[in-house]
TrEMBL record:
<keyword id="KW-0998">Cell outer membrane</keyword>
<dbReference type="Pfam" id="PF00593">
    <property type="entry name" value="TonB_dep_Rec_b-barrel"/>
</dbReference>
<dbReference type="GO" id="GO:0044718">
    <property type="term" value="P:siderophore transmembrane transport"/>
</dbReference>
<keyword id="KW-0812">Transmembrane</keyword>
<dbReference type="Pfam" id="PF07715">
    <property type="entry name" value="Plug"/>
</dbReference>
<protein>
    <submittedName>
        <fullName>TonB-dependent receptor-like protein</fullName>
    </submittedName>
</protein>
<keyword id="KW-0732">Signal</keyword>
<comment type="similarity">
    <text>Belongs to the TonB-dependent receptor family.</text>
</comment>
<dbReference type="InterPro" id="IPR036942">
    <property type="entry name" value="Beta-barrel_TonB_sf"/>
</dbReference>
<keyword id="KW-1134">Transmembrane beta strand</keyword>
<dbReference type="GO" id="GO:0015344">
    <property type="term" value="F:siderophore uptake transmembrane transporter activity"/>
</dbReference>
<feature type="domain" description="TonB-dependent receptor plug">
    <location>
        <begin position="46"/>
        <end position="135"/>
    </location>
</feature>
<dbReference type="InterPro" id="IPR037066">
    <property type="entry name" value="Plug_dom_sf"/>
</dbReference>
<dbReference type="InterPro" id="IPR039426">
    <property type="entry name" value="TonB-dep_rcpt-like"/>
</dbReference>
<keyword id="KW-0798">TonB box</keyword>
<dbReference type="GO" id="GO:0009279">
    <property type="term" value="C:cell outer membrane"/>
</dbReference>
<feature type="domain" description="TonB-dependent receptor-like beta-barrel">
    <location>
        <begin position="240"/>
        <end position="634"/>
    </location>
</feature>
Length: 660
C-alpha cells in the first residue's frame, strides 16, 4: 500500500488548494468558445474550498464526504449512513476544528466534536477549510479560537428574470433502504428582502454486508443496529439594504433517531444502543457599513440540544442505561473594522458564550461555563508584502453544583501571518503563519462519570506553516493550472486523546503529554478541453503526517505514531464533463495506522484504497431537471477507518431534482 501511494505522489505532487471553478460559455453563431478561470488559490493561510457544483463529482452525501479529499484532513467514520463522522486537521484532533455556519460558530460544549455526517448538502452553497483562520478582518473573535475553521455557507436566494419565487424538489434513494426527499422554497418578499425555507426527511435501515476478518475466509456478516430516521427544517430571512448593509435571521430544527452499531469484537457485532437528538437554534447577523468606512458586525445565537442515549444490555442494578442530556448555549458577538490608512487596517471583536449542561445522572456536576473572547487584529499591506497579526484573549469561568469546578483560565493566543508575491507578472505567492492556540477540556472530558477526568490538563498547540501557491491561465487547450504546497510543524503539549471503548458513546480520556507533528500538504488542480464540447478536470491531494509521542524517552510509546494517524494519504478526482453531463471518478488511498499509542502488530489497522464513481445529467426543459447516479466503494473493498467498525461495501445512490 505505501509503495503504491508514494509512486502515485511523484506524479501528483502538489495540493489543490481550492476546488470549485466557474465555467462561462459565450456562443457566437455556430462557434462555441469556452474560457475557464481558476478560483484564486492565494490566501493568507492555507485554504481549501468546494462549491455546490462539486458535490456531484465527489459522490458526496454530507459535509464529511465533501471534505474527505482535502489535504491534511483525517475523517473518523464509524460506518453506515448514520455513523458518527468527525474531522481531524493536521493530526490535532476534531476538537481543534471549529465549524461555522453562515458566520456563526456551531459548537458542542459537551463533547467538543461536531458530527459532520448530520449536515446534509441540500442547502449548502460552499465549504471552506482554513488552517489557522480566515483573513477576513470583520469577523467574530471566536473565529480565531480554533486551530482550523470549517466555514459552511448556505444557498442564497436566486431568482431568474422577473420571477419572485423558486422551488426545488429533490429525492434520493439507494442502498441501505435510503429514502431522502427534500424541498427548497425561495421567495422574494420585497425589493430588498428574501425568504429561504429548506426541509428534508431521511430514513434508512442501515444494514450492509461486511467481510469478517481474521479467519482467512470470505465469510460475510450483516451490520445491524444502524437504522436512521432524521428530519431537518431550516428557514432564513435575508435583507440587503443600501450601502451593502445586511441583516439575516435563521431558525433551524432537527431531530433524529439512530441505532449505534457496536464494535465487532470476536465476531460478535451485537449492539442494541440507541441515540435520539432534538436540536434547535436561532441565530441572527447584522452588518453595517458607515460612510467613513467603519464596518460593524453583530451576531447572536440561541441553541438548545437534547440527547437521549440508551443501552438495554448495560450491566447495572437496573439492567439498562438510560441517560438524558440537555445543553443550552447563549452567544453574542460584536466586531468593528476600520482602515487607518491605505496600508493599515484594524479590527476589534468581542464575544461572550454561556453553556450549561444538565444530565439525569446521580451525583452529576451540572456544569456551566462562561467564555469571553476578545481579539485585536491588524493588517498591513506593503506593495508585495501582506502581514496579518491577531492577539486573542480567552477567559473561561466554570461553575458546578456538585464537586469542584475546573479552574478559571485567561489565555493569550497570538497569531501572525505573512504573504509575499515576488513578481508582478507571475501569479506566485509565498506564505508563512504562526499560531498559538488553546483547547479547553469539554464537559464530558471533565465531568462525565463514565469517562471524565477532572485532573485533565488543558491542551496547547503551536502551529508553524510555510508554503507557496502558484496559478496560471493559458490560451491553449489547457485552461489553467493551480498548485499549492505547505509544510507544517505542530508542537502540542498535554494533548488530549479520546479512545473509543466498546461503544460509540463512551470514551476514555487521557493526556499524552507532548506530541510533535510534522507534515506536508501537496497537490494540483487543472482543467483542459477535450475537443469542442468536452472538458477534462483533474485534482490531486497528497498529505504526509508524522505525529509522534515525545513525552518520555523511557516510555514504551516514545516516538510512536499517535492513534488513528496515517502517515500518507492521497486523494484524486478526475472528470469529463459537457455543458449538461459529467462523469467523475474519485479515489482515496490511506496507509496503515494503529488504534493504540503503542505501535505494535496487535494494534495495527490496515490501510485502504477506495474508489467512487458518479454520473450526472441535466435536462434543459421549462423546469430544469437533473439526475445523478453515484457508486460508492466501486470495487467493493473491505476496510475500516476505526478498528472493529467496518465500512460498507459497494453501494448505490440515485438522485433526482427539479426546479420550478
Amino acid at each position: 500500500m505505501e509503495k503504491r501511494l508514494l509512486s502515485l505522489v511523484f506524479t501528483l505532487f502538489v495540493s489543490a488548494g481550492l476546488f470549485g471553478q466557474a465555467d462561462t460559455s459565450n456562443v457566437l453563431k455556430e462557434v462555441s468558445v469556452r474560457f475557464v478561470l481558476p478560483q484564486n488559490v492565494h490566501s493568507l493561510n492555507p485554504a481549501q474550498q468546494i462549491s455546490a457544483r462539486d458535490f456531484k463529482s465527489l459522490a458526496a452525501y454530507n459535509v464529511a464526504d465533501a471534505i474527505r479529499n482535502f489535504s491534511g484532513v483525517n475523517i473518523k467514520d464509524y460506518g453506515g449512513i448514520g455513523g458518527l463522522k468527525t474531522v481531524s486537521v493536521r493530526s490535532l484532533g476534531a476538537n481543534h476544528t471549529g465549524v461555522q455556519l453562515d458566520g456563526v460558530q456551531t459548537s458542542d460544549a459537551q463533547n467538543g466534536q461536531i458530527d459532520l455526517g448530520k449536515i446534509n448538502l441540500d442547502n449548502v452553497a460552499s465549504i471552506t477549510l482554513y488552517n489557522g483562520h480566515s483573513a477576513e478582518l470583520l469577523q467574530p473573535a471566536r473565529a480565531y479560537s480554533s486551530a482550523s475553521m470549517l466555514v459552511i455557507k448556505s444557498l442564497a436566494p436566486q431568482f431568474a428574470d422577473d420571477k419572485k419565487q423558486r422551488v426545488k424538489l429533490g429525492f434520493k434513494t439507494g442502498s441501505f433502504g435510503l429514502l431522502h426527499p427534500n424541498i427548497l422554497w425561495q421567495r422574494q418578499i420585497s425589493k430588498r428582502s428574501y425568504l429561504n425555507v429548506n426541509s428534508s426527511w431521511q430514513k434508512s435501515h442501515g444494514r450492509y454486508k461486511y467481510k469478517v476478518d481474521g479467519d482467512g475466509s470470505d465469510t460475510l456478516a450483516t451490520r445491524t443496529n444502524a437504522q436512521l430516521s432524521t428530519m431537518q427544517s431550516d428557514a432564513a430571512w435575508y435583507w440587503n439594504g443600501a450601502d451593502s448593509n445586511r441583516l439575516q435571521f435563521r431558525i433551524n430544527y432537527s431531530q433524529s433517531s439512530r441505532g449505534l452499531p457496536g464494535a465487532v469484537v470476536y465476531y460478535n457485532p451485537y449492539s442494541n444502543q440507541h441515540l435520539w437528538n432534538r436540536d434547535l437554534f436561532l441565530q441572527s447577523s447584522y452588518q453595517h457599513h458607515f460612510p467613513n468606512k467603519l464596518q460593524f458586525l453583530v451576531n447572536a445565537k440561541f441553541a438548545h440540544n437534547y440527547l437521549r442515549y440508551t443501552d438495554p444490555d448495560y450491566l447495572n442494578q437496573a439492567g439498562i442505561l438510560d441517560q438524558r442530556f440537555k445543553q443550552t448555549e447563549l452567544y453574542e458577538s460584536v466586531a468593528l473594522s476600520y482602515p487607518i490608512s491605505g496600508i493599515w487596517e484594524l479590527s476589534l471583536a468581542s464575544d461572550l458564550t454561556y453553556n450549561k449542561l444538565d444530565m439525569d445522572l446521580y451525583n452529576y456536576a451540572y456544569p456551566s461555563r462562561l467564555t469571553a473572547f476578545s481579539a485585536l487584529t491588524s493588517k498591513f499591506l506593503f506593495n508585495r508584502l501582506s502581514i496579518h497579526a491577531t492577539l486573542l484573549n480567552t477567559t473561561i469561568t466554570e461553575w458546578v453544583e456538585k464537586g469542584t469546578a475546573s479552574p478559571s483560565k485567561s489565555i493569550w493566543s497570538p497569531t501572525i501571518s505573512a504573504t509575499y508575491k515576488p513578481f508582478d507578472q507571475t501569479d506566485l505567492q509565498f506564505r508563512l503563519f504562526y499560531k498559538d492556540i488553546f483547547r479547553n477540556p469539554t464537559f464530558n472530558d471533565l465531568y462525565y462519570t463514565r469517562s471524565g477526568r477532572r485532573d485533565l490538563k488543558p491542551e496547547y498547540a503551536e502551529q508553524y506553516n510555510a508554503g507557496l501557491t502558484y496559478s496560471k491561465t493559458f490560451n491553449t487547450f489547457v485552461y489553467f493550472l493551480s498548485l499549492t504546497a505547505d509544510a507544517y510543524y505542530n508542537n502540542v503539549k498535554d494533548k488530549i486523546i479520546a479512545i473509543p471503548n466498546k461503544d460509540l458513546f463512551t470514551w476514555t480520556m487521557m493526556n499524552l503529554g507532548k506530541v510533535d507533528i510534522r507534515g506536508l500538504d501537496l497537490g494540483i488542480k487543472t482543467k483542459s478541453a477535450l475537443g469542442r464540447q468536452l472538458d477534462f478536470s483533474l485534482s490531486g491531494n497528497y498529505t504526509y503526517q508524522q505525529a509522534i509521542d515525545v513525552t518520555d524517552p523511557k516510555s514504551s510509546v516514545y516516538l510512536h505514531q499517535i492513534p488513528y494517524t496515517p502517515k500518507h494519504t492521497v486523494a484524486i478526482n478526475a472528470g469529463i464533463s459537457s455543458k449538461r453531463s459529467g462523469v467523475y471518478y474519485n479515489h482515496i488511498l490511506s496507509t496503515s495506522r494503529y488504534y493504540l499509542s503503542e505501535n505494535l502488530p496487535q494494534y495495527y489497522v490496515p490501510g485502504f484504497s477506495v474508489s467512487d464513481l458518479s454520473l450526472s445529467h441535466q435536462l434543459e426543459t421549462k423546469y430544469p431537471i437533473s439526475f445523478t447516479a453515484e457508486v460508492n466503494n466501486l470495487f467493493n473493498q473491505s476496510y475500516a477507518f476505526i478498528r472493529s467498525f467496518p465500512m460498507p461495501g459497494r453501494s448505490l445512490r440515485l438522485s433526482f431534482q427539479i426546479t420550478i
